């Protein structure tokens, strides 16, 4: 094992608590022989034989008796280098590191395939939900056409608290940090970067497509305010941090952004730090998986599942015929074009804060009409004291570029008091 | 393939539509070489080479070139006999037949283990939800302590329609039959027998316990009326057809019955013919899986997933080291005692229809008090014209035997006009 933080300690506990059952499952024994840590003298909650702790990763990578490396250290370049060495020397790898798989996955997986070694990373996406295994093995009879996920627990926690406790963004974020959901630097959670990594991995498996995270349009949740939550609810929607993938006209529509979903939809009920993945196949109707997305134990359970798979293969002598991580060899992944944002048609939510002047509402309506964006519902409220009006509207399905052009026009309107807020609606 | 109804035809379509991807996944080809049907001349929707149809099952079982038998015929004794012969002659088996696994599983699985053959039955429980694979492989790092399922789509459809359209039981059942959810003889759906079979299979996997379906207390949904739906909703609950399994004091609490669940609970949002499985582990928080529970394609997708697993093992030369169907060898399943119903403590819903006489409410309250059942909420409504009062109450947690004794006393009360309705509340 490389790294021995909360997940590593959770894993050790799972393995030690259930030794007997594990042997019944495997017909053999898993033994943790070395754990590489930065500081071997540091006090840890888990009781561990100090003899197996080392501060030298080489002791693991150069030990030919070690068959599986479990990477739980985090980072990108360093772990990628360790994984490369481990694979070169014939070791299998289990990791919880989504960044390394999203960004260096191609190279590492090619190497794993060349060396006929396992490289498994169930814990990298949606913690305790075994969604990668489900996509890789269980649903392979069908062709997935749509995938909606809430895959970042921190953003879902923040938006849920903004909705349920009427908090503003900042206090909701601080609450998430106090509860241990958000990192000290939560920027990757909030700006959608983490969800983008996870969507890239999910989409490779679901669509058998070769996807770069950098090609996925990604929007953070910090544009959402408590007022938008309230207005959305008035219209029958809640705002959720979504990762979306869909096949459309031979292309892929991949996006990460907050969106309005109907209050009675599947994902609307996913609260707090919970993660969920919603799938539709060509033949299979909606399937949904939900559960804890992060935390020591959910992550450790997923790592253990992978570890057992590798161990079973080793014990049955078939570990040189590992299933490729994406279910098909890397070269079978197709380069599917990303659907251009302008071709995307979806209904929108738009909130404008304007001076309460006669004629502004008419200007808004005509700007939208000029771009052939038709309005489904519109609501204007006025704050008489401040002389400010808020116009909130939902559009019918409209092209993203058309709505964008109308909003860009409106954002130059002299009566505008705040930047317009534009959110997508996903039904 | 034995049997070529809607599932078989769906499977054939999945396999033929996705030949190229299948080969990329398997590194080899799956070929359907024989399909045994009752009547080879019958017209079928799927286009199929008539040369592969046969009315002789022996042609499949005696053909040494056939490696996998897919049993989709239904029944118990006949398919059990075919499976025995197939395993004896070294073939692997994939089936969607829950009855044969629930009732003859022990013998067949023992044989499969002895012969080192696969016997897979993902499609037998919860259609398109790969819950067996998840329990067998993905969540093995944790110890499952609780499992709540909606595993019979017909009963969930009926109860959902009773709640949403205020239908009585009979019209809701007829609607389910018209929509093709319920069988012409829907008794196994309605009396809980089908859910009991599925719970037995799920519980073997989740709790590694040796479970006989006949030992699972099972109650049908036909005791629920539209009035109960309304009263439940007034109290903040909906009524769902549940299959429940839990570890408790070294025993297992297994039950199939309709129950009240809070309107904001996970299972309350599972409507219509959808199935769902809710799990809690010792370390893992709630995980939930939902999707279509039956139908040609969901079932065919699960059969295909199993088929691919066997095919991968054959192609990698490791099919003589099949994972046992329950994840551990049959002999490792433990005989865990079923928690006696009398030890079960749960809150209850009780509805009494009585003559509107002074003193009846007091009699009800004192009967419950005598058996130390304490009331949480009570509601009495009176129909003046008929001179009938309805008393509905929720109890605090109470022993099943205590509530049973109180209700049995009350059912002999002279003012009683209908049999009392007693339902469990699951929070």
Which keywords apply here?
Rossmann fold, Dihydrodipicolinate Reductase, domain 2, Alpha-Beta Plaits, 9-stranded mixed β-sheet, 14 helices
List the helices and strands and how they pair.
Two copies of one chain form a homodimer.
Chain A: H1 6-17, H2 19-26, E1 35-36, E2 53-54, H3 58-61, E3 68-71, H4 77-88, E4 92-95, H5 98-114, E5 119-120, H6 131-138, E6 144-150, H7 153-164, H8 169-178, H9 187-190, H10 193-207, H11 226-234, E7 237-248, E8 251-262, E9 274-281, E10 287-292, H12 296-315, E11 345-346, E12 348-355, H13 360-370, E13 375-383, E14 388-395, E15 398-399, H14 400-410, E16 421-425
Parallel strand pairs in A: 1-2, 3-4, 4-5, 8-16
Antiparallel strand pairs in A: 6-7, 6-9, 7-8, 9-10, 11-15, 12-14, 12-16, 13-14
Helix pairs in contact in A: 1-12, 4-5, 5-10, 7-8, 13-14
Descriptive notes:
The structure is a homodimer of 427-residue chains. Chain A has 3 domains: 6-120 and 296-330, NAD(P)-binding Rossmann-like Domain (Rossmann fold); 131-292, Dihydrodipicolinate Reductase, domain 2 (2-Layer Sandwich), CATH 3.30.360.10; 343-425, 2-Layer Sandwich (Alpha-Beta Plaits). In chain A, 36% of the residues lie in helices and 22% in strands. The first copy, chain A, is built from 14 helices and 16 strands. The first copy, chain A, has helices spanning 6-17, 19-26, 58-61, 77-88, 98-114, 131-138, 153-164, 169-178, 187-190, 193-207, 226-234, 296-315, 360-370, 400-410; strands spanning 35-36, 53-54, 68-71, 92-95, 119-120, 144-150, 237-248, 251-262, 274-281, 287-292, 345-346, 348-355, 375-383, 388-395, 398-399, 421-425. In chain A, helix 5 links the parallel strand 4 (92-95) and strand 5. The radius of gyration of chain A is 24 Å and the shape is elongated. The mean pLDDT of chain A is 94. Strand 10 (287-292) of chain A pairs antiparallel with strand 10 (287-292) of chain B.
């Amino acid at each position: 094992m490389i790294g021995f933080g909360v997940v590593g300690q959770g894993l050790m506990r799972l393995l030690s608590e259930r030794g007997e059952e594990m042997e019944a499952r495997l017909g053999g024994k898993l033994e943790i022989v070395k754990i590489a840590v930065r500081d071997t003298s540091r006090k840890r909650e888990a009781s561990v034989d100090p003899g197996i702790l080392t501060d030298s990763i080489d002791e693991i990578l150069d030990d030919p008796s070690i068959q599986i490396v479990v990477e739980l250290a985090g980072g990108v370049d360093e772990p990628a280098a360790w994984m490369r060495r481990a694979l070169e020397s014939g070791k299998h790898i289990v990791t919880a590191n989504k960044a390394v798989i999203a960004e260096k996955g191609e190279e590492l997986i090619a190497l794993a395939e060349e060396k006929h070694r396992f490289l498994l990373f169930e814990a990298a996406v949606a913690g305790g939900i075994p969604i990668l295994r489900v996509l890789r093995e269980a649903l392979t009879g069908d062709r997935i056409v749509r995938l909606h996920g809430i895959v970042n627990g921190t953003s879902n926690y923040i938006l849920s608290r903004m909705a349920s406790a009427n908090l503003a963004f900042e206090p909701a974020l601080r609450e998430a940090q106090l509860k241990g959901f958000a990192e000290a630097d939560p920027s990757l959670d909030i700006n959608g970067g983490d969800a983008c990594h996870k969507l890239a991995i999910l989409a490779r498996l679901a669509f058998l497509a070769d996807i770069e995270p950098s090609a996925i349009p990604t929007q953070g949740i910090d544009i959402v305010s408590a007022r938008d939550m309230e207005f959305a609810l008035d219209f029958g929607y809640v705002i959720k941090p979504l990762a979306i993938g869909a096949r459309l006209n031979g292309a892929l529509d991949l996006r990460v952004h907050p969106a309005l979903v109907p209050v009675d939809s599947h994902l609307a009920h996913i609260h707090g730090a919970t993660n969920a993945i919603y799938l539709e196949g060509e033949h299979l109707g909606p399937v949904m998986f939900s559960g804890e997305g992060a935390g020591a134990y959910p992550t450790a359970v997923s790592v253990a599942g992978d570890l057992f798979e590798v161990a079973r293969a080793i014990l049955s002598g078939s570990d040189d015929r590992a299933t490729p991580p994406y279910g098909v060899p890397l070269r079978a992944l197709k380069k599917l074009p990303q659907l251009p944002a302008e071709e995307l048609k979806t209904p929108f939510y738009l909130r404008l804060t304007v001076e309460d002047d006669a004629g502004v509402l008419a200007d808004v309506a005509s700007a939208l009409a000029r771009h052939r964006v038709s309005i489904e519902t519109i609501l204007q409220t006025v704050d008489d004291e401040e002389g400010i009006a808020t116009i909130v509207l939902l559009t019918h399905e409209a092209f993203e570029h058309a709505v964008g052009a109308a909003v860009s026009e409106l954002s130059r309107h002299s009566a505008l008091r705040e930047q317009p807020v534009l959110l997508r609606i996903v039904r």
